[in-house]
Amino acid sequence: MLEASHYYFNRAAEIIGITEKIKSILLTPLRVVKVEIVTEDDQGCLMSHIGYRVQHNRMRGPMKGGLRYHPTVDESHATALANLMTWKTALVDIPYGGAKGGVNCNPKELSTPELDRITRTFVEQIKEVIGPSLDIPAPDVNTNSTVMGWIMDEYSKYYGFSPGVVTGKPLQLFGSPGREEATGRGVMIVLEEALKDQGKSMKNVTIAIQGFGNVGSNAARLVAEQGAKVVAVADHMGGVSNIRGLDIPALVAWASEHRTVHGFAGGEPFESAEVLTWDVDVLIPAALEDVITRENAGDVRAGLIIEAANAPVTPEADEILNKKGVTVVPDILANAGGVTVSYFEWAQNIQQFRWELDRVNGELSKIMRRAYESVRNLAASKSIDLRTAAFVLAIQRVGQAALARRHIRDSIPSID
Ligand code: NAD
Question: Rounded CA gap, 299 and 301, in Å?
């Protein structure tokens, strides 16, 4: 995955024409933190997990990025995702750098008190390098508002009341209205814009979604509310399809009770991986990375892919999709709604002032549409794909901010 993010970076950097020296500076993480988290399990025995926080770049502001609890979390994985956060925050032009981290663990095998202890010990180990003006974690795969509440509580024990240390918190702990659904809402907004460019609207498209967690379920609900027909949904346990369109509110209720879409009676079951090659207009991968690969890219039937997950398409697959004429709206644009509303949450925490939901959604819509428009216009004017255009815009912003901080002769050309 790290090679993939470097590949996309290098492809765009070549178009901008930046030097090897600046490329290397922009790719190298500022700081990599690896800690051992020793806690007790519910039986009173010792457990040990490894936690990571990779802080990639802080040229445009405090570093920002999620915490993932998953068996695949390691240094290389966190570094790749931290890189993406730097480009994502720059692309939507919010005052942050990029970071990412998590704990290598299987939360499905841990009780809530065990996860609470792991989280608090992790915070204790990284508390010196996070903070409202340093690095602000947020939810990602297998972490949620509850975990963010624990982080705020633990950090505040050392530094006093600090809601701005983390975003995606519960509303009672000064989370933002609209944050829970923000990534899904951003996905819906860019889909709306991409469809407009193709002369289509939500009302005349069919959609397949991989992943029905925070991002996938909220995206499903919001696109269905706009009139789109979500005909296939899959998660780690299996898939469910309905040619007339799935009843999304009923599926959300089923999934929240059973923790999977598998077994939902309002459709036909299918093997999870088949969702990626479903015969639909739009495919929304909203689960994990590297799911569309050299092996299955040729079988993708959707004409439009909205990357709700981070890095769901490998570079080889990206090339195959481009050749096939499939439009891919890249992750750093498509899923930026979450970090954008995290920014609003942090701004509210710093101001100690709460925004209404309408304001949050209105500002989110403006930022997402503006970012989409700038990517689409650059892609059209330079005859490049949307991913390359997004990276070009982001790299220019970060690079120019880095250079503007020093009195030096190096420069980064502007090509937009
Ligand atoms: P989540 O833990 O809430 O949900 C993950 C979903 O993926 C679950 O439905 C799970 O069953 C499914 N899944 C896991 N393995 C699968 C497999 N092999 N096949 C099919 N489905 C599988 O996580 P989330 O927060 O919804 O994040 C999903 C993706 O979106 C990740 O790539 C994450 O980095 C990205 N993302 C999340 C946010 C956010 O605000 N939560 C923001 C930006 C990007």
Answer: 6
Task: Quote the strand ranges of 113-175, DSSP E.
Answer: 135-139
Helix (H, G, I), strand (E, B) or coil at 31: strand
Nearest by Cα to 232 from 219, 214, 245: 245
* Residues contacting 24, CB < 8 A, separation 6+: none
- Tell which one of 136, 141, 305, 335 to mutate to probe ligand 1, the residue whose CB is within 8 A of the most ligand atoms: 141
3-class secondary structure, 96? coil
Pocket test for ligand 1, best of 91, 146, 251, 288 (most atoms within 8 A of CB): 288
Which residues contact residue 155 at a Cβ distance below 8 angstroms, ignoring those fewer than 6 apart?
123, 127, 130, 131, 162, 165, 166
Token readout for 354 is 């709460």
Runs of H (alpha helix) within 107-144: 112-126
Q: Which residues contact 333 (CB under 8 A, 6 or more apart)?
A: 88, 91, 92, 190, 371, 372, 375, 386, 390
| Predicted confidence (pLDDT) per residue in 267-326, tens digit | 999 999 999 999 999 999 999 999 999 999 999 999 999 999 999 999 999 999 999 999
Tell me the whole-structure pTM to 2 decimals: 0.95
